């Protein structure tokens, strides 16, 4: 005897995920290049794009703000200005450090960068800001410092790639030689440099802070002490 046919089940409505078991988030699209901003001076709040480049790691805004407060106190001009200063940003990247100095009245700022695309970006920013005090050079920052006349610079910014440890000592040595007697070196590194290491290069720690993985040092010629 044939069995009666079962009625087809109506499609049940989709059940919501149990409480506490959220559905997986959609895959994130690649984020657009981030930005940093100029903290003070003529171009205050100007935003600088950060290209998506391996190893490109711009100094965080709050670290730069502290750094330029330190430098302004040494300049003694008030208003955070660095009037007449001569500067080299030896591993420029986005140019945030050198452009900040130019924004605050530095008389000359050399931005050195080896990556052609970053050099083109720096040129575009220079044109946009009409930054007459800024000069851009594609090449090796250590070589540029070695070419600088001894005792000619007020501040040297050193922010090499963290994974290229071999750059640090020659860059510090060349920077120390290029400084005026009361000049400064800003060093950004993946570790804190010891007093003994710095003394061997003719430098001494003046100010220091750590922010995340960044060890930020403001150094001065050893003869100036660590006031």
UniProtKB/TrEMBL annotation:
<dbReference type="GO" id="GO:0031167">
    <property type="term" value="P:rRNA methylation"/>
</dbReference>
<protein>
    <submittedName>
        <fullName>16S rRNA (Guanine(966)-N(2))-methyltransferase RsmD</fullName>
    </submittedName>
</protein>
<keyword id="KW-0489">Methyltransferase</keyword>
<dbReference type="Pfam" id="PF03602">
    <property type="entry name" value="Cons_hypoth95"/>
</dbReference>
<dbReference type="InterPro" id="IPR004398">
    <property type="entry name" value="RNA_MeTrfase_RsmD"/>
</dbReference>
<dbReference type="GO" id="GO:0008168">
    <property type="term" value="F:methyltransferase activity"/>
</dbReference>
<keyword id="KW-0808">Transferase</keyword>
<feature type="region of interest" description="Disordered">
    <location>
        <begin position="1"/>
        <end position="35"/>
    </location>
</feature>
<feature type="compositionally biased region" description="Low complexity">
    <location>
        <begin position="10"/>
        <end position="19"/>
    </location>
</feature>
<dbReference type="InterPro" id="IPR029063">
    <property type="entry name" value="SAM-dependent_MTases_sf"/>
</dbReference>
